[in-house]
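This section describes the prediction task in plain terms. A model, or a person checking by hand, is given the sequence of a single protein chain and must write out its three-dimensional structure as a string of tokens. No templates, partner chains or ligands are provided. The sample shown here is typical of the held-out split.
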Amino acid sequence: MLKLSNSTIKKHLNNLTREELEAEILNLAKKHPIIHEYYYSVLFPEQEEVLDKYKKIIEKEFGHHKGEILRYPIMKQAIKDFSNISNNKEHIAEIMVFTVECGVDFTLSYGDIDERFYRTITSIYEQALKYIVDNQLEDKFVDRCNELMQSSQEIGWGFGDGMMELYSDYLGHVDEEEDLE
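The expected answer:
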């Protein structure tokens, strides 16, 4: 793949008039829908249309019945793509927590899946918990994360134990603070 340095791109952009720069950005947005989504997210950060689009991508992957292959890269790519276009920290945490909720619901509906499934969902749960703590969103997500941990306790492959350990590591302090009140 050919690579251009940022300085080369910056030099090119500096040579453009304002109108040419606007035309270039509009052309990119027309050719690449993800740029259009990025600007939508920047201009309307509280709107959930873009979030809903990516949630549907994830939900579709869990719409398969047991025995069909779950496409983990598509789920992970949806989270990554949304995280790259949105500046809304709550929405970014939402898409990760939503994915874990879909995973837990899926296994509760269809029974044990496989080790790769549980590793993937646990990894996304940890990513969500870290993001929630790093961005101080505990008050908005602690109940849902606790519910995920609780509902995973009867699931095999050590999944429930892993979910409990992660919850304790990242959000256990919230429960302790509530106990002190």
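For orientation: The CA atoms of residues 72 and 120 lie 7 Å apart.
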